[in-house]
Specification:
The protein has 346 residues and is an all-alpha fold. The chain has 14 helices and two strands; from the N terminus they run ββαααααααααααααα.
């Protein structure tokens, strides 16, 4: 089948995407807008979509209570859900490309475990620490975990299989230490850590939105700029070197971007699993495996998945609220088993 490509070139960057990608991205953008309006509208105090649009445009809706609920409670929470989904999905896309393994995910290979350990350390041992220290500590934990995985898997080059195996082992160690800290922590701080570990955007405010935003502004464009290098690395080191790629340097940059996005997402909303696994797979079915199109597609898919997971968690068993991490786990675990079965002979 002949593929119709759209090529964008300049001195700094080179992009090649299928012509269907912009159409799919536009459709996903519409789906995200609908999902976000639904998430803001639904709840104990239902609000009409028209009132939501008026509020976003700065118009008076004649009900200050609804305006407060939209602007101070539901809208920042929804934005955080979308942004965290983007970060985790892009991170998962990068690690699947680097390891050449469709089952790779920041949670499965240990990156999220390192971020979680560092964040729980701050929550339990330094409960009065400022809010901005949480993303920094999670990034440091994720980066340290990535360095450990990368160094232990090094054998005259970095092996994708060893990266995954080392990640699984180190993830178990980090999870055990996290559990130990929770066991001996103060009850109030432990309660906060447990809620956070479940993966939730409950109570997220504009403070978390503006805390996460710089990480996306910096690292999402970096991911897009490195997409063509990820295409080369995905073909194998020998092929990438024959194409003129500086394999270890480019892999190191991509690991840094993936770690930063995963750490920022985990620090903001806790350990929400399987987004980095599901979103890239769905993205490949829509736009193929070329990362210039796959990265933005996966990002939008990850955002809409967490927004919808948050909506389902809030409304399915109301007034009881399920963390969105529980909802994604219910969906993601069977999907992971399906992928294992489908790929067992490959």
């Amino acid at each position: 089948m002949k593929v119709d490509w759209l090529v964008i070139r300049s001195q700094a960057i080179s992009f090649r995407i299928e012509r269907r990608v912009p159409i799919i991205l536009l459709c996903l953008a519409v789906a995200i807008a609908v999902a976000m309006v639904m998430n803001v509208a639904k709840g104990e105090y239902p609000i009409s979509p028209l009132d939501i649009v008026k509020t976003l445009l700065g118009l008076d809706i004649g009900n200050p209570d609804h305006s407060f609920v939209i602007q101070n409670l539901r809208l920042p929470r929804t934005l955080v859900a979308f942004m965290v989904g983007m970060a985790l999905a892009i991170s998962g896309t990068i690690f699947q490309g680097l390891t050449r393994n469709p089952l790779a995910d920041p949670g499965i290979i240990g990156i999220n475990a390192g971020a979680s350990l560092a964040a729980v350390t701050v929550i339990v041992l330094f409960p009065s620490a400022p809010i901005y220290t949480l993303p920094l500590s999670a990034f440091a934990g994720a980066l340290l975990m990535a360095i450990l995985i990368y160094s232990l898997a090094w054998n005259n080059g970095s092996s994708p299989i060893l990266l995954i195996l080392m990640g699984v082992g180190l993830s178990a160690i980090a999870s055990a230490i996290t559990s130990l800290m929770i066991t001996f922590g103060e009850i109030y701080d432990v309660s906060n850590a447990l809620v956070w570990l479940a993966g939730s955007v409950y109570g997220r405010t504009w403070e978390q939105v503006f805390s996460l935003l710089p990480w996306l502004i910096i690292f999402v464009p970096m991911a897009l700029m490195l997409a063509r290098h990820l295409n080369a690395l995905n073909l194998g080191d020998d092929v990438a070197k024959s194409l003129g790629s500086q394999v270890e340097w480019q892999r190191g940059l991509l690991v840094l971007v993936g770690v930063a996005l995963a750490g920022a997402g985990v620090a903001t909303a806790g350990n929400i699993g399987f987004i980095g696994l599901i979103a890239p797979h769905l993205g490949r079915q829509l736009v193929g495996a070329t990362h210039e199109g796959l990265i933005p597609t996966s990002a939008l898919l990850g955002g809409v998945i967490i927004v919808m997971a948050d909506l389902l968690g809030r409304t399915l068993f109301a007034p009881i609220e399920l963390p969105c991490g529980v909802v994604t786990a219910v969906i993601g675990a069977p999907y992971f088993l399906y992928l294992l079965i489908r790929n067992r002979k490959k």
